[in-house]
Amino acid sequence: MDVITNHNRLRYNSPLSSLPLHAVSLQLSASCYEISRAFDDTPELPGVLLFDKKNFHSMISRTKFREIMNQPYSKDLFNQRKIKKLARQFDSAPMMLPAETYIGTAVENSLKRPAEMMGEPLVVIQSEVYFIVDIHELFRAHARIFSATVKKLQAEISHSNLLREKLEQSTLAAEKLARLDGLTGIPNRRHMDEYLSSEWQRAIRKQTSLAIILIDIDFFKNYNDTYGHQSGDEVLLRVARCLDNEAHRPADMVARYGGEEFLIILPDTSEEGAYALAERMRQMVYGLKIAHQGSDIGQFLSISCGVCCLASRRKNTLPDHVICAADQALYQAKLAGRNQVVIAQQPTKTGQ
């Protein structure tokens, strides 16, 4: 019998290839007698694959074949007919799925078929080879998986301490994800605001310096217009990774400020140190050599940076004032031709 069986234990993520795979096939040029003999010789055979030479044509199930055989004509006459003529009577495309499809997914897809197709086998493709899976075997396997999953969950429920620990871990993981930007994976604006406020208070309390760098990707709108938004997202991810790799200290934070802007928070960092890091980041991004035909200043993608340092003596300055000063410095960098770093004046209460 042409059947492949995988005897591995079924799990929730078991693929269709773990079920018995039937591979009985016939050519359209053969007679219907060959189909009848195949089903008689193998009672558990759910269907027969039909090929037009080397090309897959269709599949006829045992149920559909018996329905056609019950039509009013002699068995001998029926057996003499070519499969090609018979195929016109069941010309309905079978559901075809890759062999790596999960059993649960295959069940969901099969249940979406019309009622008259619900009991039909599935055609499974593995390494460009066609097989048939019995729909009843699929449902039985899914029932066994479901039963095993329920038993496993019941066992886990009895260990309440373990479940509580898992819940706490999941909560912490969710909180961590809530602090990250969904595209770049670096801290988002909300987390950045919280961290800047905390570090600002610490800098005032301990009379230390606090520097920030505000970065903008030059001509990013032109990049999106030229290469598409998907490429733009990829650029944001690459730039974010590049900036994050340059901020080596544990206390340093590279965050997505919004759109194509990034903000770097540098505790205990002087103005000179922040400028040096910003210049290094600028060079590293340009060194990625990301082609940018929409740029007015060069052939590669570049960034502009505004640097601001909160000196310990500026006790009346707020975090927003520091950002405002860095933003003004960034604006000056753009006016000066972009792809450069500008240091801001010490911020005041009004941010002027």
Helical content (DSSP H or I, runs of 4+) = 40-55%
If strands are numbered along the chain, what order do they take across the biggest sheet? 10-11-9-12-13
**CATH level 1 class label of the largest domain:** Alpha Beta
Give the N-to-C terminal Cα separation: 85 Å
What would you say the CATH architecture of the largest domain is? 2-Layer Sandwich
Number of domains in the coordinates? 2
Q: What percentage of amino acids are in beta strands?
A: 15-25%
**Shape descriptor:** elongated
Give the beta-strand count.
13
Return the average pLDDT rounded to an integer. Answer: 87
Largest sheet: 5 strands, mixed
Low-pLDDT residue spans:
none
Helix-strand sequence: EEEHEEHHHEHEEHHHEHHEEHEHE
Q: What structural category arises from helix and sheet content?
A: alpha/beta
The tally of helices reads 12
GO molecular function: diguanylate cyclase activity
Enzyme class: transferase
EC number: 2.7.7.65
Organism: Desulfuromusa kysingii
Account of the protein in words:
- There is one protein chain.
- With 352 residues, the protein is of the alpha/beta class.
- The protein has 2 domains: 3-144, CBS-domain; 179-343, Alpha-Beta Plaits (2-Layer Sandwich).
- Helix content is 45%, strand content 18%.
- The protein is built from 12 helices and 13 strands.
- It has helices at 32-41, 62-69, 75-80, 83-87, 103-110, 135-157, 160-178, 189-206, 220-227, 229-246, 271-287, 319-335; strands spanning 3-4, 21-22, 25-27, 47-52, 55-61, 96-98, 122-126, 129-133, 210-217, 253-258, 261-267, 303-310, 341-343.
- Strands 10-11-9-12-13 form a 5-stranded mixed β-sheet, with helices on both faces. A 3-stranded mixed β-sheet has the order 3-4-5. It has a 3-stranded mixed β-sheet with strand order 6-7-8.
- Strand 10 and strand 11 (261-267) form a beta hairpin.
- Helix 5 (103-110) packs across helix 6 (135-157) and helix 10 (229-246) crosses helix 11 (271-287).
- It is elongated, with a radius of gyration of 33 Å.
- The mean pLDDT is 87.
- Residues 208-346 form the GGDEF domain.
- It holds the Pfam family GGDEF.
- It catalyses: 2 GTP = 3',3'-c-di-GMP + 2 diphosphate.
- One of its GO terms (biological process) is cell adhesion involved in single-species biofilm formation.
- This is diguanylate cyclase.
